[in-house]
Amino acid sequence: MRRLIERPIRSKDAQDLLGGKVTAQELERRAKAKAKAKAEIKAPVKVLERRLPTNVNAEKPLGLAEQRARSRWQKPLAAIIANARAVNVGLLDRLTIGVHGPDWKAPEIYQATFNELYEATKKQIEALEIFCRVQWSD
């Protein structure tokens, strides 16, 4: 078993600093140089990762057929309608809680705009619910 007393408590840089072998500015310069070198090494890898689409299940790049299939994939209609309905319900909830317009010169215009948006959102939700009842296909 190794004795902990024999091991140095501080890093080599800290020991050199305490021993007067280097200055604090020299240590900072070394740390910046190390960080810059690490950034330069990692940067080309990140650019490569962004350029090549990768498969979710594997680390290899997608083949041409897989890229073509992914680019032609369309979100199902039911999912698009469900998302639109959820967004409108969320908006209606926020409008029901209440919003405050800016205290400018014409609060009547803001109230009229708010009322129109509120009614249009309610109508949009009703239309989406009616649209969902029909079994649409792509």
Secondary structure blueprint with pairings:
Layout: H1 12-19, H2 24-51, H3 64-72, H4 77-97, H5 107-133
Helix pairs in contact: 4-5
Write up this protein.
- With 138 residues, this protein is mainly alpha-helical.
- It has helices spanning 12-19, 24-51, 64-72, 77-97, 107-133.
- 67% of the residues lie in helices and 0% in strands.
- The N and C termini lie far apart (71 Å).
- Helix 4 (77-97) runs antiparallel to helix 5 (107-133).
- It folds into 2 domains: 7-70, no CATH class; 74-133.
Summarize the structure.
With 138 residues, the chain is mainly α. It has helices spanning 12-19, 24-51, 64-72, 77-97, 107-133. The chain folds into 2 domains: 7-70, no CATH class; 74-133.
Q: Which value, in Å, is the CA radius of gyration?
A: 31 Å
Helix and strand element order: HHHHH
* Span of the ends, CA to CA: 71 Å
Say how many strands there are: 0
Domain count, please report it.
2
Average pLDDT, all residues: 76
Identify the overall geometry: flat
Structural classification: mainly alpha
Please summarize the sheet with the most strands: none
Determine the strand fraction and express it as a percent band. Answer: under 5%
Helix residue percentage: 55-70%
**Uncertain ranges:** 45-49
User: How many DSSP H or I helices?
Assistant: 5
